[in-house]
Amino acid sequence: MRIFLTGATGFIGSRIVPQLLAAGHQVLGMTRSESGAAWLRANGADAHRATLEDLDSIRAGAAKADAIIHTAFDHDFSNFVANCEKDRRVIAALGSVLKGSKRPLLITSGTGLGQASHGALATEDVANFEHPNPRVASELEGKVQLDAGVNVSVVRLPQVHDTKKQGLITPFIEISREKGLVGYLGDGGNRWPAAHVDDVALLYRLAVERAEAGARYNAVAEEGVPVREIAEVLGVGLGLPVKSLTPDEAQAHFGWLGMFAGLDLSASSKLTRERLNWHPVGPLLLDDLRNMDYATATA
Predict the structure, then answer these.
(1) Do residues 139 and 215 touch, judged by C-beta distance below 8 A?
(2) Which of 91, 122, 233, 296 could form a disulfide with 114 if both were Cys (CB 3.0 to 4.6 A apart)?
(3) Rounded distance between C-alpha atoms, residue 46 and residue 229, angstroms
């Protein structure tokens, strides 16, 4: 297939490119910059210049493809709600190109949308459209497109990691540096799911090849890593004290990250593994955190 990949030079997208090419697919990668376009060409893909705000160009790229994988997202979490709405508009634009065809559109969301209730284990067979996470906008628009006949499926992400980046933990590290303290809320027993970026990239390939309309996949290797254990490893790496925080202290300490700091986001990938024969093999989250270079790591 010729696959239009948004976010093709990003943390996850840049790992999806070689996965797709090795499986015999052609890749048209969306990128904002000429340096990104040069990277794509050097790695065997074609480049399509566009930004998330340029919906006409996004539609033009989608029109050239047999399938679409949408991983691009504006990760400025200080404007998280607005950026989730931006993602909704991009999904609508992509879907508008695919109506009347069977060409698959694979979008991206978060594992929290699979929680039936607060603190419940997130599963693929649940779509909680009342979830407080603003990222619900992505899955809501996906449902709109699915109901309109577009072949939409979803990959839900946990904390995706290697030794350079680790999802929400990357800004967690920068906040800890700024505050001179690695904090966690209460007893720190709340858990965050995780998966290595290479395992996640493989999952995207398997999911777009399956092209099952309405399917939801949890890209989860570890169901839940306690935040206290994450904080303890970060404390060693950063050479900073580790401390339990009260809710008021946590809000002042974490800022925008406070909306996530105390959440228990454990998630299962049992159905994903069965449906896609996906078996993650990458390093565990705490191992990557132990092996990263804290002297050079930045958000």
Answers:
(1) no
(2) 122
(3) 42
